[in-house]
Inverse folding.
DNA sequence: TGGCGAAATATTATCGATAATATTTCATCG
DNA sequence: CGATGAAATATTATCGATAATATTTCGCCA
């Protein structure tokens, strides 16, 4: 049997997800069912199903009889997500440390790629490898529910949003925060690794807040709205 | 405008959710689209949309061209969920404590109802008020992302499953674990409240594990499969 | 008797059309 | 002019039917 079978609705969902992640679809953009149906040369039905899934991933908002739009990610939600992420990754590190038994080769490999991307100033690559790094730790916890909860934060979108906000002045400096985490995991010290990861999340959050404040004060007179800000970030 | 508008698919979703929670639909049960469509006197389309939402709530499993079933909740997943729940509620307490400013009236009210239900041996009421208690703390964190992550654990189903596993020998004793949490919150000690909540989740997890072990050793010869176990628990 | 494969059956995935609802346009009136 | 509301338009929600796929039944043969 063909288990890789893909329904039309699944294809549509992945394409739309990718577009939201890569910024082709910006926060607030309207998604019209028949338009997308035409694009995929299909009927309305699979498009609607795709929308429902995107909605439960919190990537879009559906309002009955009024349509579907790419969800705004408010500054507040961003901060909240960092907080939750910190707690989940702390737990992940604590669970992962005894399971890894000192074998952090995979995680250290991601770390190497992070540093390389930082040196070259490649923001896209940095974001990707950064996600891989954090995901590797979460997956190492071997707790499916935790992995699922973490994935649902859809941090990928948020990380890219974050890095594009302004050109990160010092990507390499930021990358260095990851090193002691791996060192702690290697010697099986989950508590320390967890604490460091949580602090890392907090420091990312604070950097984000500072930037938003800076950006707001610059454009204070004519554009104080978060909605606009997010739209431009994702583009 | 009528913002309470309910689509057919939403109605179907809520009814099916309720049936899964209250045990009318048991783990493993098949859900046939046209059967449900007939029952609600509607077409297949809204039923399918409802299924998609239930799937993203992890209440059912959909396999392309093979149908939809109520999801099994394995023993392992149960344990994993307790672990994640502990971490999320710990964070919630830490965030909530400074915001509550000593006002724990609502939380203490839930606690009273928990004790009352425990005294009367009313398992349904205990489960309900227990959820209200924990939710009240999570909501008090005022972190939407955290609240959402916690709700998604769909702990309601799991708590009922847990309590019905066998008649809880001492509901009142168990209820007492909640009291020091509220005391800590009242004096603004979020760290302690959080630690206690996490320990509470751990102790629930361990009680659960012991029971599963007991039940397994009893029926060891003819029914060692978790699948069957969960099915009967939900009934 | 038991395994194999083709028809029969059951069910899901998708379609094209229509009903229900929201939004826009625009003529009318004060 | 600006407000108002009815028609026109756009879009979503649902329908009934069909195509695609999986499962079952059952006759056939070794």
């Amino acid at each position: 049997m063909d288990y890789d079978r893909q329904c039309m609705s699944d294809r549509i969902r992945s394409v739309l997800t990718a577009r939201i992640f890569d910024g082709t679809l910006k926060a607030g953009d309207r998604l019209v069912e028949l338009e997308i149906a035409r694009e995929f040369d299909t009927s309305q039905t699979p498009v609607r199903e795709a929308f429902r899934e995107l909605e439960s991933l919190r990537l879009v908002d559906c309002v009955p009889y009024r349509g579907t739009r790419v969800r705004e990610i408010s500054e507040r939600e961003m901060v909240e997500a960092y907080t939750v992420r910190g707690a989940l990754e702390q737990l992940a590190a604590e669970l992962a440390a005894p399971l890894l038994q000192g074998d952090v080769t995979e995680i250290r490999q991601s770390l190497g790629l992070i540093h390389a991307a930082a040196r070259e100033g490649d923001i896209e690559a940095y974001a990707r490898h950064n996600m891989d790094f954090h995901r590797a730790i979460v997956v190492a916890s071997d707790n499916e529910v935790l992995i699922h909860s973490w994935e649902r934060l859809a941090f990928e979108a948020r990380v890219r949003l974050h890095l594009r906000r302004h050109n990160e002045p010092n990507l390499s400096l930021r990358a260095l925060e990851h090193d002691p985490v791996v060192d702690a995991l290697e010697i099986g010290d989950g508590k320390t690794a967890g604490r460091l990861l949580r602090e890392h999340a907090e420091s990312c959050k604070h950097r984000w807040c500072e930037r938003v404040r800076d950006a707001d004060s610059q454009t204070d007179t004519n554009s104080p709205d978060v909605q606009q800000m997010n739209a431009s970030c994702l583009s």
Q: What stands out?
A: Residues 7-9, 42-46, 49, 64-67 of chain A lie near DNA strand C (CB under 10 Å from a C1'). Chain A touches chain B at residues 5-7, 9-10, 45, 48-49, 52-53, 55-58, 64-65, 76-77, 80-81, 83-84, 87-88, 90-91, 95, 143-146, 148-149, 152-153 (CB under 8 Å). The longest helix of chain A spans residues 190-218. Chain A is about 70% helix and 5% strand.
